[in-house]
Write a sequence for this structure.
């Protein structure tokens, strides 16, 4: 399973040592690295990116996580400092979509005190010991969270509820008295607008999810081409896992998208 990690280290020098160590673990096959960046917390409590994530689908995920951490935790008194309500909700929605929950954010907030630095990355690992050992030697604290797909399941349920509400409103409108039809029509238009917006978001999510899966598999194939023996077998297993996970997520999103299409079909 893919997971996001935040490794909290004492300073920037240790952070760059940590980045080198993670790349070495990737090279030997102990883990697979998909994206990585470095975020520092200044003495004033503000967070800043020291090393940007690579461009592309995989770097985008890690970059979004780093940006979310800065938006939520970057102020001197924690979440929402300098962030408007709408922006805050947007950050939370994006992090939830990636499978990042409150427990992860709380722990990062607690450990990432002024002067410390976080290595933020997306990885796959079979055992936690190799990474724990290397980061412990640097005085690092590792915080992990799986990239879950529960948000995709919730999205499907939400879209199904929109479809059901729209069907009930249309049935009621058909049998309503003339004086009530205008109000019901206005409500139908509102729900249809929600369905259209959900459809557009789902199309974008499907494309993003499939691009990420393709990019991960490509990265793993490049890693496997340089590996031998047990390391290669582990990477091949990760490739199979990525394919299965990508197909599962795509299926959930496409089912939800199909519901929006059928809801909008006269």
């Amino acid at each position: 399973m893919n997971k996001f990690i935040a490794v909290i280290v004492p300073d920037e020098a240790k952070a760059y040592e940590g980045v080198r160590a993670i790349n070495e673990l990737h090279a030997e096959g102990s883990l697979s690295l998909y994206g990585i960046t470095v975020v520092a917390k200044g003495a004033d409590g503000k967070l800043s990116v020291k090393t940007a994530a690579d461009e592309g689908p995989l770097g985008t995920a890690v970059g979004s996580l780093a940006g979310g951490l800065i938006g939520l935790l970057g102020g001197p008194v924690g979440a929402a400092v300098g962030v408007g309500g709408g922006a805050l909700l947007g950050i939370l929605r994006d992090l939830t979509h990636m499978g990042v929950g409150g427990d992860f954010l709380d722990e990062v907030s607690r450990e990432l005190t002024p002067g410390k630095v976080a290595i933020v990355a997306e990885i796959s690992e079979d055992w936690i010991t190799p990474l724990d050992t290397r980061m412990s030697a640097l005085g690092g604290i590792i915080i992990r969270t799986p990239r879950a797909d529960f948000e995709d399941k919730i999205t499907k349920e939400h879209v199904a509820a929109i479809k059901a509400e729209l069907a009930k409103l249309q049935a009621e409108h058909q049998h309503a008295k003339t004086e009530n039809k205008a109000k019901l029509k206005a409500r139908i238009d509102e729900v249809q607008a929600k369905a259209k917006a959900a459809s557009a978001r789902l199309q974008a999510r499907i494309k993003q999810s499939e691009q990420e899966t393709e990019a991960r598999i490509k990265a793993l194939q490049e890693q496997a081409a340089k590996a031998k023996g047990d390391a290669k077998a582990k990477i091949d297993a990760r490739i199979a896992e990525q394919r299965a996970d990508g197909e599962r997520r795509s299926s959930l999103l496409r089912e939800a998208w199909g519901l929006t299409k059928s809801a909008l079909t006269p």
